């Protein structure tokens, strides 16, 4: 059966239940509406099963999408040697070797171990394009970008983005030409299963098979992420995506299909990417997705709970199917520095760890259950984990993988933590920890480090804190397990405004970020922190979620105005590579 003919039983609930916004979510009784003079007590009782195929879903729920110039898999062409010449000196001293570092000597006490996986990362929805091709079903992000007014910077869509779906052979050739050792990609769930469950799309399996085989052909280690935020739309519309425990079985079934198809060649797996980001996105923008009776403040925690269940079961299944694999999830968040040495600020720092990284890391690495600060908030509305669930969660990661981009200061809210905890309408409730990127006036009032693009206000080049950050992860959660910096990277300020190619390619702050970050990892390694790899975000400029093409994270520039989407190495890619040329044990 051709993928576009596969059917999905879509239950459309009477429109009245979807037309209210956040305010209505707290109500526990169904709404009452008046139609033609007669009162209907429970309009949600009216339901209809629609049968939709993939094409219908796109047409009805997303609308027309753009297609790229290239719509078949392109073969790789040789990378010209002239494009592999490193840039001249930047404005700081670089590592010793290559054209850009005339003055510095190598630090002989540093090295990356031979097996250190230095690589790059991307994610399906941000780089693939070809959103509607070859049987892919829509994800929530296709809807957000097409249907939610002003949601995307400049109304961008990821319909085409880097067209990596068809250009991956050339992309991998370009990574291989620089000697990159590892490529971290995500699998699009709704390509494999257009409705998130049910029929499996063999064309998608064939696609990722070839991508993986192409990696292996270049001796590039493939690392696969099962879920990088692109929830299949059908699951969102049917039961609310991660808000419903229904997602657990569907995710585990999807994991089973991916492990069975690719597990003979992919040894490194990440289940979910950054739950603290995608769970905190709930409630998703009102009016577009079915609202539930879960109060909006609680929605991130329902999501988090279901993530722990889904992740732990997918981990256990993966280890049973691929005993030699390495499986983890991807945590994220900046290093949290107390703004002052007050006791309240120390407590604010702890609360920030507890509600962000700790919400998942404490159960997975320490106890099988939530920490006390989280429990104090969620125990009134979420069920406690059963003993069986706790046992499955505890130890469900072989490494600690952290997307460690930046650092921040944390401090107690105005009026103190206790007052915040007593006031559920405080905007900082329930975490009750404030944050900033600026030192106190007594410490000079400086930024923690140079700012990235204004569209990424959460990101500063705070690389000095990275060794302390890695020690903290080791001491708190990883203990004897290896650590991977599974994403890190920088958005050069205002890069989108540059028009002159050579100017775009010379990205000094990003280059300094990678240089100093590598130095920080070398320091941590020399101090005994077992970092097994790092994956730079990203190998190309791509679709940066709600910032669309307004923000550039690539170590390669992509000219999105040229329909052939040409790629060019930026100076930062050479800086990154150079660290390994100099410091990796041969
Ligand atoms: C990460 C995310 C990536 C990418 C990056 C830069 O949090 O996993 O998808 O967007 O941030 O913002």
From TrEMBL:
Signal peptide: 1-24
GO BP term, pick one: carbohydrate metabolic process
GO molecular function terms listed in the Swiss-Prot or TrEMBL record: beta-glucosidase activity
Gene3D superfamilies according to UniProt: Glycosidases (3.20.20.80)
Keyword terms: Glycosidase, Hydrolase, Signal
Descriptive protein name: Beta-glucosidase
PANTHER family recorded: GLYCOSYL HYDROLASE (PTHR10353), LP05116P (PTHR10353:SF36)
Residues that span the membrane, as ranges: none
The family this protein is said to belong to: Belongs to the glycosyl hydrolase 1 family.
Superkingdom of source: Eukaryota
Keyword presence, GTP-binding: no
InterPro entries named in the record: GH, Glyco_hydro_1
Listed SUPFAM superfamilies: (Trans)glycosidases (SSF51445)
Species lineage: Eukaryota, Fungi, Dikarya, Ascomycota, Pezizomycotina
């Amino acid at each position: 059966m051709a993928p576009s003919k596969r059917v999905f039983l879509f239950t459309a609930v009477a429109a009245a239940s979807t037309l209210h916004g956040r305010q209505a979510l707290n109500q526990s009784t169904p709404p009452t509406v008046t139609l033609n003079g007669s009162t209907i007590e429970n309009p949600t009782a009216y339901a209809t099963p629609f049968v939709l195929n993939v094409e219908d879903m796109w047409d009805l729920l997303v609308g027309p999408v753009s297609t790229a110039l290239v719509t078949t898999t392109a073969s790789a062409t040789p990378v010209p040697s002239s494009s592999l010449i490193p840039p001249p000196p930047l404005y700081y001293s670089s590592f010793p070797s290559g054209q850009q570092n005339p003055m510095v000597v190598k630090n002989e006490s540093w090295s990356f171990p031979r097996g250190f996986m230095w690589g790059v990362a991307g994610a399906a929805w941000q780089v693939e394009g070809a959103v509607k091709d070859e049987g892919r079903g829509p994800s929530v992000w296709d809807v957000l970008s097409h249907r939610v007014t002003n949601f995307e910077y400049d109304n961008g869509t990821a319909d085409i983005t880097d067209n990596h779906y068809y250009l991956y052979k050339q992309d991998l050739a370009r990574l291989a030409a620089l000697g990159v050792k590892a490529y971290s990609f995500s699998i699009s769930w709704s390509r494999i299963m257009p409705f998130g469950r049910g029929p499996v799309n063999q064309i998608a399996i064939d696609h990722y098979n070839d991508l993986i085989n192409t990696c292996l052909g270049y001796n590039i280690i493939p690392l696969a992420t099962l879920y990088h935020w692109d929830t299949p739309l059908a699951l969102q519309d049917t039961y609310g995506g991660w808000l419903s425990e229904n997602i657990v079985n569907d995710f585990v079934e999807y994991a089973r299909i991916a492990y069975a198809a690719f597990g003979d060649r992919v040894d490194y797996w990440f289940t979910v990417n950054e739950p603290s980001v995608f769970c905190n996105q709930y409630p998703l923008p009102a009016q577009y997705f079915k609202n539930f009776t879960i109060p909006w403040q609680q929605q991130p925690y329902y999501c988090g709970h279901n993530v722990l269940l889904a992740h732990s079961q997918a981990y256990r299944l993966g280890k049973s199917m691929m005993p030699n694999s390495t499986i983890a999830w991807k945590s994220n968040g900046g290093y949290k520095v107390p703004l002052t040495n007050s006791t309240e600020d120390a407590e604010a720092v702890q609360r920030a760890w507890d509600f962000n990284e700790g919400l998942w890391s404490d159960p997975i690495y320490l106890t099988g259950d939530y920490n006390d600060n989280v429990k104090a908030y969620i125990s009134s509305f979420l069920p406690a984990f059963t003993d069986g669930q706790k046992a499955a969660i505890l130890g469900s990661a072989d490494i600690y993988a952290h997307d460690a981009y930046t650092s921040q200061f944390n401090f107690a809210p105005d009026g103190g933590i206790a007052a915040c905890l007593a006031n559920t309408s405080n905007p900082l409730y329930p975490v009750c920890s404030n944050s900033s990127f600026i030192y106190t006036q007594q410490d000079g009032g400086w930024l923690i480090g140079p700012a990235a693009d204004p569209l990424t206000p959460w990101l500063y080049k705070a690389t000095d804190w990275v060794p302390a950050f890695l020690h903290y992860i080791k001491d708190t959660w990883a203990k004897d397990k290896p650590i991977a910096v599974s994403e890190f990277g920088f958005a050069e300020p205002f890069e989108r405004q540059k028009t002159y190619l050579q100017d775009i390619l010379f990205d000094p702050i990003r280059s300094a970020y990678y240089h100093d970050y590598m130095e920080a990892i070398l320091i941590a390694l020399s101090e005994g922190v077992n970092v097994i790899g790092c994956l730079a975000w990203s190998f190309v400029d791509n679709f940066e979620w709600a910032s669309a093409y307004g923000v550039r994270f690539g170590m390669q520039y992509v000219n999105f105005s040229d329909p052939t989407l040409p790629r060019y190495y930026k100076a930062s890619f050479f800086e990154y590579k150079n660290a390994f040329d100099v410091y990796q044990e041969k």
